[in-house]
Design goal:
By secondary structure, the chain is mostly helical. It is built from 13 helices and 2 strands; from the N terminus they run αααααααααβαβααα.
């Protein structure tokens, strides 16, 4: 008997239906576009500069949390005999495999997977959709607002512990999802990777230590160079369908003209000793104060089709590593590096919560273990059915 697939499809559709209710400003629906590319017979991927797969915020969250959960089970009764830690980044990426190894039976939807689908996933995505946060630089480590973004992480972390103390796990999970988004963005929106930190997460995030890191400000007149390669691609049926899709999302800040123009950047940073991030068209503070890319300084742009300033205002191009397509990410070549750092930081984030509240509370927070009664209700002969991963 295979695990039911219906539920995943329904969740998938529910998740995407949220896009059509709200105008979106900065979300790249990477999996949908990858799916369209895979279904398309032309060299569609090439047209939009596809260089790698795209790992979304939800996947980053699930993989990082999965690593933390793997270590949790390893540390439980008989863990070392059941869990093989060397499989932490590969086999256990599918959380069901942790359960299969630890309990010796197939659990189709572990309780924690429901938590990921219903609470953590939607909240990590929400930050790009919610009118209160989608254009707020503090929620995305944009516009060189490192201090303010860090203050946001510290405030959220305090509230997470506050709600954990009250045993309001749902609220703690919502806030965890939301703040993970901001932490992930540090790696894809800043120059951390270009500074040489290809396999080192920034443990100063969420602590006072970040305030003493060197950060570029208005005195640093040139953080990026205008040396990116301009790519022009004709509007094929495929690119037209991508554009139509983005128009549906009401991405008004995008420059939809044929031929499509986007930048491919390689060594466009001018600052390696200080933290730098990109400016993104249309950003504003909570009180409505705009945060434009300065026109009198040579500051980095976020970049990509959806960031008009990055195409029109020097230095052109940009530094974001949000996706594996140059169409959206001028540093698509660094996307996987940034995504893996974000996965490891997610792991670190949940490890710290576990360390602070202890295994028993961590178990309740994420509903991890099964009692023998719960286990006896799970049939013994279930097998996995491989599903296309669309999220
Ligand atoms: C653990 O997994 C690794 C890699 O999959 C494998 O080579 C090794 O034999 C496994 N160890 C045990 C004790 O099963
Ligand atoms: C701190 O976080 C809480 C909970 O999300 C939020 O209500 C509050 O506005 C935040 N305060 C600041 C100064 O960001
Ligand atoms: C992430 O952590 C793993 C160990 O779990 C390590 O092998 C890997 O190099 C780290 N990746 C990055 C990008 O830091
Ligand atoms: C960040 O905060 C620290 C400590 O409050 C301060 O010294 C520094 O100037 C701030 N940096 C920026 C760019 O605002
Ligand atoms: C597998 O499970 C199904 C449904 O629970 C049951 O009808 C069937 O007899 C089981 N098959 C085996 C081989 O145990």
């Amino acid at each position: 008997m295979p695990c039911a697939t219906q539920k995943m499809l329904i969740n998938f559709l529910l998740f995407f239906s949220t896009f059509f209710n709200d105008p979106v400003n900065c979300f790249v629906p990477g999996k949908i576009i990858d799916y369209v590319i895979s279904e398309s017979s032309t060299n569609a991927g090439q047209d939009i500069g596809r260089i790698s797969e795209t790992i979304t915020h939800e996947q980053i969250l699930e993989r990082g949390l999965g690593k933390s959960i793997t270590k949790f089970f390893y540390d439980q009764t008989d863990g070392p005999n059941r869990i093989n830690l060397t499989k932490i980044t590969n086999h256990y990426q599918d959380i069901r495999n942790i359960y299969a190894d630890y309990y010796g039976k197939t659990v189709c939807t572990p309780k924690v997977s429901d938590i990921i689908t219903v609470l953590l996933g939607p909240n990590v995505a929400l930050v790009d959709l919610d009118p209160l946060t989608k254009d707020l630089p503090y929620a995305h480590f944009d516009a060189e607002k490192f201090n303010e973004s860090n203050t946001r992480v510290m405030n959220f972390t305090n509230f997470i512990y506050f709600y954990l103390d009250l045993k309001d796990y749902e609220k703690a999970l919502e806030l965890s999802g939301q703040i993970m988004h901001t932490i992930h963005d540090f790696y894809s929106h800043s120059n951390w990777v270009e500074m040489g930190n290809v396999d080192r997460i920034n443990r100063a995030i969420g602590t006072q230590d970040l305030y003493s890191m060197p950060i570029a400000d208005e005195k640093d007149a040139e953080t990026c160079l205008s040396n990116c390669e301009l790519i022009e691609t004709p509007c094929s049926t495929f690119t037209q369908s991508v554009i139509d899709f983005l128009k549906l999302l009401e991405l008004t800040s995008a420059l939809f003209e044929c031929p499509i123009r986007y930048y491919k950047c390689k060594s466009n940073l001018a600052e390696f000793d200080k933290l730098v991030s990109g400016y993104y068209t249309g950003q504003k503070l909570s009180d409505g104060t705009p945060v434009p890319k300065p026109s009198n300084l040579l500051k980095c742009s976020h970049g990509g089709l959806i960031d008009v300033d990055s195409i029109l205002l020097e230095p052109t191009g940009g530094i974001n590593k949000d996706s594996g397509y140059y169409l959206f990410s001028p540093r698509a070549d660094l996307h996987l590096v940034a995504a893996h750092l974000a996965i490891n930081h997610t792991e670190y984030f949940f490890d710290q919560i576990r360390q602070k509240i202890g295994d028993q509370e961590f178990d309740k927070f994420l509903d991890l273990t099964y009692s023998s009664i719960e286990l006896s209700r799970i049939p013994d002969n279930v097998t996995f059915l491989k599903m296309p991963n669309l999220r």
